[in-house]
Write a structure and sequence with these properties.
By secondary structure, the protein is an all-alpha fold. It has nine helices and two strands; from the N terminus they run ααααααββααα. Helix content is 37%, strand content 2%. The structure holds a DNA duplex.
DNA sequence: AATATACCCAACCGCACCCAG
DNA sequence: ACTGGGTGCGGTTGGGTATAT
């Protein structure tokens, strides 16, 4: 077992104070993002480097777009999840100003439920036997089940949707493999993800962003097929 | 009004990957 | 080729808030 990334003793944990935030912002503005391990000490923070990195990436970065997800962002997340599975960082990489944590939370709290309400198994994006799709399910994507529909969630779903409890019609565990027959899984959703490189993506990563692994891209025929991401036709 | 329950989100944890030495 | 440190990622947790009873 490897050593913890930092000495846990004498380290602050939990919510960040405004002073801590300011120290981190000031330091990064002066010195940029660098060695996270040494940053806390240099910045005068009693935090471990991982905590600083997370705070910066998920909350303090100036280019973050905070607030509700737009409808097109929701659609994009759903489509990318069908394509990529739980690879939140990859998904977030296609949503400017969004973080993997934010996307993951939004998926778990809103979109999962939305798909379940539509009768779609969120794990593999196929129509679920237990929850047959509502009529015009796809049309409800942005209406009845839209974010905050706690009413619907409570009426139509057990309180804690278990991760594997919902068995889909066919046992396809890999989300990406569900794409083999997309038309069955996502009615009315255009999954024709023609992704390639509008500026940096995918071959040239942004500053701190990993490129898509070639192997990942290779395994997906949609990658590198066109210069634009045509999603909403 | 008080209590219980559900929901949301920030943060933590541990593992995996990458890369320099 | 191997090793260990640094970093990134995904899963999970805990606390605050909203809603229901």
């Amino acid at each position: 077992m490897r050593k913890p990334c930092c000495d846990k003793q004498d380290m602050n944990k939990g919510a960040w104070s405004k002073q801590e935030d300011q120290k981190l912002i000031d330091y990064i503005q002066k010195h940029g993002e660098g060695c996270w391990r040494t940053l806390p000490q240099a910045a005068g923070l009693l935090r471990c480097g991982k905590s600083c990195r997370l705070r910066w990436i998920n909350y303090l970065r100036p280019d973050l777009k905070r607030g509700n997800f737009a409808e097109d962002e929701e659609d994009l997340i759903i489509k990318l999840h069908a394509l990529l599975g739980n690879r939140w960082s990859l998904i977030a990489g296609r949503l400017p100003g969004r973080t993997d944590n934010e996307v993951k939370n939004y998926w778990n709290s809103h979109l999962r439920r939305k798909l379940i309400n539509m009768g779609i198994d969120p794990n593999n994006h196929r129509i679920s036997c237990k929850n047959p799709p509502l009529q015009n399910a796809a049309n409800t994507l942005h209406s009845s089940a839209s974010s905050g529909s706690k009413e619907n969630a409570k009426k139509n779903e057990p309180t804690k949707p278990n991760h594997d409890g919902e068995k889909s019609c066919d046992l396809v565990s890999d989300a990406a493999s569900g794409l083999e027959d997309e038309s069955h899984s996502l009615p009315d959703l255009n999954l024709d993800l023609n992704i390639s490189m509008p500026s940096p993506f995918p071959c040239v990563p942004k500053d701190n962003q990993k490129p898509i692994l070639e192997s990942e891209a290779r395994s997906d025929p949609h990658f590198f097929s066109s210069p634009t991401l045509v999603l909403f036709q």
